[in-house]
Structure formats: structure tokens, C-alpha cells
Amino acid sequence: MTWKEIDWAVLERLRARFLSGDAAQGPYWTSPADLANYDFTYGKRIGWKWDAVLQELDQRGWKPRPAAVLDWGCGSGVAGRRVTRWFGADRVTLLRVWDHSALAADFAARTAQACFPKLHVEHVTPGFLAGGEPVGMLVISHVLNELPAAELLALRGLATRADAILWVEPGTPEVSRALIEVREQLRARFRLVAPCTHQAACGLLAPDNARHWCHHFAPPPPEIFTDSDWVKFGRRAGIDLRSLPCSFLVLERRPENAGADTDPDLARVIGEPRIYKGYAKVLSCDATGVAEFTVQKRDAPGLFKQLKRPAGALVYRWTRTGNRIHDGQLLAV
User: Which of 128, 194, 252, 291 is 20 to 30 A from 280, comparing alpha carbons?
Assistant: First the structure.
């Protein structure tokens, strides 16, 4: 697809359904053209979120063993393709795709096969979903605001069969809170890889943090801001191209009787640093909980500059006294 082939009526119909909440009422794809238009526009934005999450996994030095991948609720398949590219198609022993919509599953399978000709791709059968066979790596993207309670329960059951889970969602307060619930239900069986730096209960569940939610921002490619087609798309869709908020969760199966794998000195900044004249504030999450810290420019000019123009995941080792940070070392591979 190219910008000249875009069907704006299709994009506007899909956008209206997403905004109205009707997307939870059943499959909304009516043709392969719907999926192609979506994949070329909204799907790319989701892909940029996945890129940021996968870059953070690189920053943390995490990549699992070769495995089968299941892209659950695949839509156009952008998440499965991004993970396959990051993981290495030669390390993906099998890519499975599943969606309520057969049109979507077909599109995702065909597109993945076109991108990775040597990759073995197959559709998931109802028997596999209902069975007990290991899943491998479970990939889930932008589904929580569309799932009824019974289906979310079934998805959590499927997740218990996975060796690793990569889950990315919109960065809204409601969806973030729902993903935190999933985290709490799975953390006894899985090791938390990201965005968490610890294995304890989520600090955002504390009553004092009720107004906060776990979200982060993915950087869009800078070239889109000078691309007239993307600018036109942003205007017609009513989207701020600069903002790509997301919530995500990455877990891997915890070996039996394994102790906690925690670095007590690591902290993850939630959201974005808030910059003021001469100081910055960060909402920091670590094993002790979630709290707001202050960075004075005069105390740590290098850190202040870094927070002002962040790049990559904001995972730090703080040097601080109380709620005042004196310096910080950014985690880098």
C-alpha cells in the first residue's frame, strides 16, 4: 500500500468505531482492504510502540531462547512481525496467529510470510487454544479495552502456558490499571522483566498513588514530522503524531524454587520527567514503591540535561537522599 492508495473512508470508519467503544462488540474488519489501510497507518504507530519496548529489552540485555511465537488477537499482525524481526526469524521456530476475525488472521499470516519467506506460519486452531500444549512466546497487543471478562479470564489461562509474555497496550489510565491486575495475577509464576525493576507488588496499588498509572512514551520516527502524508493523516485522524503513550508488561516463566531476581538499586521512571526552571520531577518506581523525586539542576547538571531530552528507557540507579536525587546512572547495555 502507498499513501496514494489510502482509503480515507475506511480509516474514518475504523477510527469512529475505536473511539465509540464499539470495537468490543465483535470483529470490525470487513475486507482485506480494511486491514491494509489500518496496517499502513494506525498499525505503524502500534509498531513504533513495539519498537520502543523491544529496544528497552535490548537495553536490559534480555532475549529469550529460540521459541514458537503466538500472536494472539493479531489484527493485521504488526506485533508478531515486529517481535519476529527483533527476535530474529531464524530463532522463531513457528509463528502462530489467532484473531476473532478470520480475515485478520489470514492477512497477518500472509503479511508475515511475505516479510519472512523462510518463516513457518500457521493459524491457531480452537483445539490449541483450549488445550494444554505449551505456547512458547505469547505476544499480545492492544486488546484489553475490547475483551469481556470471560475472554480475559481465558487469556490469562492461556498466558500460564507461555514461557514468555510480551504485552503492549494503550497508555490510558483504565487500560494501565487492567494490565496491573494481570501483572499481579501472574507474578507468582513469572519473573517480571520490564518495565518493572523488581518482583514485588506494584507500587501504584498504594492508595497514595491512585491518581497515577503505569505508562511510558515511545518515540515516533523523526522523519514523519516533515512528511506531508503523515502530517495530513494526523490532521484527518485528529491524532497528535508526537505522542505515543503505551503500557506494557514483559514476563518470563520463573523456574520452580527460584529466588527473586531483583536489583534493589534499579528504578524505572514512569511517564515522562516534568521539567521546570532549574529542577525536574520524576515519578520513580523501584522495589520500595512508587514516589516522586526531585532533581535540582545545580546538583546534577548532566542528569538534568539527560532528563530534559530523554532517549531510550529511563532505567536508573539513583544517588539520592530522601526524595532528592543527587545523581543517576542510566542503565545501558
Answer: 194
State the Cα–Cα distance between residues 179 and 190, nearest whole angstrom.
15
Which amino acid is present at 313? Answer: A
Mean per-residue pLDDT for 161-189?
96
Question: What is the gyration radius of the CA atoms in the chain, in angstroms?
Answer: 20
Side-chain half-sphere of 99: how many Cα atoms within 13 Å? 27
* Domains of the chain by start residue, with CATH: 3-253 (3.40.50.150), 266-330 (2.40.50)
Q: Is 31 helix (H, G, I), strand (E, B) or coil?
A: coil
- Burial 212-248, CB ≥16 within 10 A → b, else e: bbbbbbbebeeebeeeeebeebbeebebebeebbbbb
Return the closest-CA partner of residue 192 out of 239, 142, 248, 275: 248
How many Cα atoms are found within 13 Å in the side-chain-facing hemisphere of 186? 30
pLDDT class of 320 with cuts at 50, 70, 90: very high
Could you identify the residue written with the cell 535490548? 58
Q: List C-alpha distances in Å: 105 to 71, 174, 283, 321.
A: 10, 27, 39, 53
From the number of C-beta atoms within 10 Å of its C-beta (0-12, 13-18, 19+), residue 136 rates as buried
pLDDT of residue 17: 84
92-98/67-72 β-pairing: parallel
Sign, CA dihedral 262-264-266-268, equals positive
Percent of the chain past pLDDT 70, that is, above it, reads 95
Q: Which residues contact 25 (CB under 8 A, 6 or more apart)?
A: none
> Which residues neighbour 124 within 8 Å (Cβ) at sequence distance 6 or greater?
70, 72, 96, 97, 98, 105
Report the C-alpha gap between 256 and 271 in whole angstroms.
Answer: 34
SS3 254: coil
Only one residue has cell 505503524, namely: 44
